[in-house]
Amino acid sequence: MKRLKIGVIAFMLMVLSPFGAKGDVQGEQAAGRIAKEPVMAPVAVTSGRATQSAEDMAAAAQGTGFTESSQAAQDTVFTEDPQVTRETGFTEDPQAMEQAAGSVVMLEIFDGQGKRLRTGSGFCAFEPGLLVTAAHVITNMEYAIATCDDGKTFRVDHAIVADEESDVAICAIPEDAGLTPLEAATGDPLRGEKVAAIGSQFGIVNLITLGNVCGNFEMSDATWILFTAPVSSGNSGGPVLNDQGKVTGITAGAYDKGQNMNLAAPILVAKELYREINAEVE
User: Fold this and answer.
1) Annotation marks residue 103 as catalytic
2) Where are the domains of the chain?
């Protein structure tokens, strides 16, 4: 697979302006193109006693719309039951999101003269010694300083592999950094699927925003996920997690002239890069 296609990245910077590509807030404003909400799912009741006849429910269900609550649901009465439990997805579980944030870091990128170029995000995946991020975040990187969710820091010296066409890179990190790999999703996300984005917006470590998947599209021989969870400068390279808490994408950018038109590279690209790493080792 051919890597590091500079012409394609130049096109992306012209059209998309990924977060962090120009460095910090001023750079994003200079780029002037793409500066690269909470939705709650219905709660399923898994126990409790409903008092309504099947005939009444069938009659009440007539004429309901796709996104409407049925009359049957309005008329159903649940008796008090201390044993009632509710199924909660990842995007409705603050504890689960807190735990996932422990695998995400803020990245400060420096050049050979020690000048800070930009900030971005990254996350541990596949195994403890690997960090996934966006390829544009580490452009011209001599080294990076990673700040963990608990405030600890460690140094990142190089990328093992990068695919600039799809804007995904994998870096080596110390295995004793203490990061737990996030699980990768399988397959493409569905439209309407709820997601959570974790990233260090404007240098604030590991902010979490919620939204949903809008769809998938092809551009410049690469596949992109469109999603609505709000993202800003510094989010690039952070994970986009589905409602099962698995990484479905890697934040890349957003259309500044659109309404919540944010972009992520599919995690499947990172999986392919990981396979290449293992093939080279073998």
Assistant:
1) no
2) 1-36+89-282
Write down the catalytic residue from 103, 200, 236, 243. Answer: 236
Q: Taking the model in full, what pTM does it have?
A: 0.72
One of 149, 163, 167, 243 is an active-site residue; which one? 167
Q: Using alpha carbons, select from 211, 281, 193, 191 the residue that is nearest to residue 251.
A: 211
Which one of the listed residues 103, 121, 136, 163 is annotated catalytic?
A: 136
Options 2.130.10.10, 3.40.50.620, 2.40.10.120, 3.40.50.150; CATH for 1-36+89-282 is: 2.40.10.120
> Which residues are paired to 132 by β-bridges?
123, 170
Q: In 143-193, which ranges are E strands?
A: 143-147, 153-156, 159-163, 168-172
Q: What per-residue string of b and e applies to 52-91 under the rule 16 or more CB within 10 Å gives b?
A: eeeeebeebeeeeeeeeeebbeeebeeeeeeeeeeeebbb
Assess whether 176 carries a catalytic annotation. no
Q: How does pLDDT run along the chain (282 residues), one tens digit per residue?
A: 434 333 333 334 334 445 544 333 333 333 333 333 333 333 332 333 333 444 444 444 444 444 334 344 444 443 444 444 446 899 999 999 999 999 999 999 999 999 999 999 999 999 999 999 999 999 999 999 999 999 999 999 999 999 999 999 999 999 899 999 999 999 899 999 999 999 999 999 999 999 999 999 888 788 999 999 999 999 999 999 999 999 999 999 988 777 888 999 999 999 999 999 988 655
Annotated active-site residue 167? The verdict is yes
